[in-house]
Design brief:
This protein is α+β, with helices and mostly antiparallel strands. The protein has 13 helices and 21 strands.
């Protein structure tokens, strides 16, 4: 069997002409069931009926029951049967542009080789949770397609840049507005010479990097093993289930937002005694406005209705790419050392707030009495993410928050 290239073109399933606004939906994991139900109400072709099919059941339905996955498959098939979704007649790449305010990023929808994922050429930086992996694997198996793309970052490739730049001057297949005012625009890239050049350019890359979608990637790997077992001798290694749906963007166009922390208690201390403990390890000054860190090793703290800017008293530079992260420094010097919060994955004393919500959300959580203190961080950089992945390590939980988010329903990848 011939190994697939790192990125392959796919016979994608996408909205038919004029139907994209009916279909395109937020990713399944940014909405709870109630929010998804409200968003999809009165919109029978919204892709949430596939990605979160529990919305078609009464409140309280088990999200992981086979009936929910069967309903997702039924809804997906109906969208194909009714011509709301169409399948590409030949393999192609797609150019996918995200525009959020002034920020624009343009990349490629690809089939990412699962063998390369398993071999860590498609590099990871997060642990996955088995229950979430199993959920996405069942979704893929029942529906017969990967419907939620992973997000991949790659180091800029001039030849690929040139093809994308030329393509975006053509009329797109569609351009629609998603939640948050994000504009999602798709072009079908089916020129054979361009496909060959893109495939060869990525095949020269030593590695690419999962930015978001670790569970989607892991689930696709699980499903590939399952399909290989099911098909036995009929397995060729070239079937669509041998790659997984991903959208790849050049690193220089991507944006990581800050991922901030809020804590429920001060480990038995008063705000005054907690602040005194913090001053043992940090230079602390009260500020009049919000304390938004402008550089690495700056931390904002909201405590008792006041904002403080904090800097470690001693340099905490570390050759270890994980220990040198700001999220690690905060955990080490404050969350662990002072508050006794040692496992961010399991502790119910800490919560995480994506930077897209702004520091006002931190104030709100503390002022309501729900939380006792909040910490604002400088965003992790893509260079730091790459260093961690290249070192075969994983980041602490909730280290990166990518915006804008990819939409579901833009392109799906059938298993066969």
């Amino acid at each position: 069997m011939t190994k697939l290239p790192l990125f392959s073109p796919i016979c994608g399933i996408r909205p038919a002409k004029g139907r994209a606004q009916d279909v395109v939906a937020p990713p399944y994991d940014v909405l709870n069931s109630k929010e998804a139900r409200e968003l999809a109400e009165g919109h029978p072709w919204n892709f949430l009926h596939v990605s979160k099919a529990e919305i078609d059941f009464p409140d309280g339905t088990d999200l992981y029951s086979d009936g929910v996955y069967r309903k997702a498959a039924e809804n997906f098939k109906k969208m194909l049967d009714e011509g709301v979704l169409v399948r590409e007649k030949k393999p192609c790449f797609y150019v996918y542009r995200l525009k959020m305010g002034a920020h624009v990023q343009t990349g490629l929808v690809v089939g990412a080789c699962i063998e390369d994922y398993d071999a860590n050429r498609i590099r990871k930086h997060e642990f996955t949770r088995p229950v979430k992996e199993e959920d996405r694997a069942k979704q893929i198996k029942f529906v017969g397609a990967q419907t939620g793309p992973g997000l991949i970052a790659y180091k800029q490739i001039p030849d690929v840049d040139a093809i994308i730049r030329r393509k975006v001057h053509e009329t797109p297949e569609f351009s629609v507005e998603g939640i948050g005012g994000v504009i999602h625009t798709l072009w079908v890239l089916d020129n054979e010479a361009d496909i060959k050049k893109i495939t060869e350019a990525f095949e020269k890359q030593k590695a690419v990097y999962i930015a978001d979608g670790h569970h989607r990637s892991a689930a696709a790997s699980r499903v590939r093993k399952y399909m290989m077992e099911q098909r036995g001798a009929a397995h060729t290694g070239a079937e669509p289930y041998n790659y997984y749906l991903a959208v790849a963007y050049p690193v220089n166009e991507m944006k990581i937002w800050d991922y901030n922390r809020v804590v429920k208690d001060l480990n038995g201390m008063t705000p005054e005694s907690f602040l005194a403990k913090v001053k043992d390890s940090f230079e602390v000054r009260e500020v009049s406005g919000q304390a938004k860190p402008a550089v690495r090793r700056e931390f904002g703290m909201y405590l008792g209705g006041k904002w403080y800017m904090m800097k470690p008293r001693t340099p905490s530079e570390n050759d270890d790419p994980v220990l040198s992260l700001d999220v690690s420094v905060l955990s080490d010097l404050v969350l662990d050392k002072i508050l006794g919060i040692r496992d961010l994955r399991k502790s119910d004393r800490v919560d995480f707030v994506g930077g897209i919500r702004g520091l006002g959300e931190l104030e709100k959580r503390v002022n309501s009495g729900e939380m006792k203190a909040a910490f604002a961080l400088h965003a992790t950089s893509l260079e730091e993410l790459i260093s961690v992945a290249d070192d075969n390590q994983v980041m602490p939980p909730k280290s990166t928050w990518f915006e804008p988010k990819l939409a579901d329903g833009v392109v799906s990848n059938p298993l066969l």
